[in-house]
Amino acid sequence: MSSGRARGSATTTRQNDTTIGHSATRGLQSVRQMSKCAATGVSREKGEAGFSQSDAIARKWSTLCSENGQAETMTDLKLIALDEEDLDVISAHVQDAVLKVGDMGLASRDRRFALMLNRFDWTTTKRRGKGERKRAALRFDNVIAARSSGFDPKASEGVLELLAVRFAPTDAPAGTVTLDFAGGGTVALDVECLEARLHDLGAAWAAKATPAHDLSE
Q: How far is 142 from 111, CA to CA, in rounded Å?
């Protein structure tokens, strides 16, 4: 995904308390999808590939994103994705986000995978030089299992750069969410159905540099 796409997508969706699927038809499809997901009765499985049972991550999410948590501003994002098109928008907003390995984890009992990350806000580059980074939380629900490759999930201080988030359906509405990191690392989440949320958490600061990629590869 190029930075140009990120800037374009971000500009069209930047607002507080936004659900990405806008039309009534898509909304009805999403409700049906969620109902089908709930009816599948897929058994819960334990996390794989070294991911701890990260109830602490889940609790941190609940605290930071609750109504009584940090104050939101008019420029904070609060997005929901229920299909691939929605997820493409979230992916554009988290392109070039950085995070520590220890700031993501699977809470198997809640079937939730959450990440705390510093996302690059592409919409600020024109008016604020090198742009801004914002503290944000990204969460996936209905997660059956999580797998990682290309990095050590136990190296909690390791730093990763998130390039894209994508969804591939298997037995619809079930499928696999894949988080692609720079250097070839990935996290794959098996989900009963797609449900992702991105919240800004209020903190923002000037970026040291604008991310750039070699698009010739």
A: 5
| Tens-digit pLDDT profile for residues 17-49 | 333 333 333 443 444 444 446 444 443 333 444
* Inter-CA distances, 210 with 69, 104, 173, 213, Å: 30, 24, 37, 10
Place of tokens 């949320």: 197
CB neighbour list of residue 31: distance below 8 Å, 6 or more residues apart: none
φ, ψ at 165 (rounded to 5°): -130, 130
The whole-model pTM stands at 0.71
Q: Is residue 71 one of the residues assigned to a domain?
A: yes
The answer to whether position 119 is within a domain reads: yes
Q: Which residues are within 8 A (CB) of 49 and not within 5 positions of it... i.e. 6 or more apart?
A: 146, 147, 148, 149, 153
Residue with tokens 């797998």: 147
| Any domain includes 125 | yes
Tell whether 21 is covered by a domain.
yes
CA distances from 178 to 13, 55, 198 (A): 22, 21, 16
The total number of structural domains that make up the chain: 1
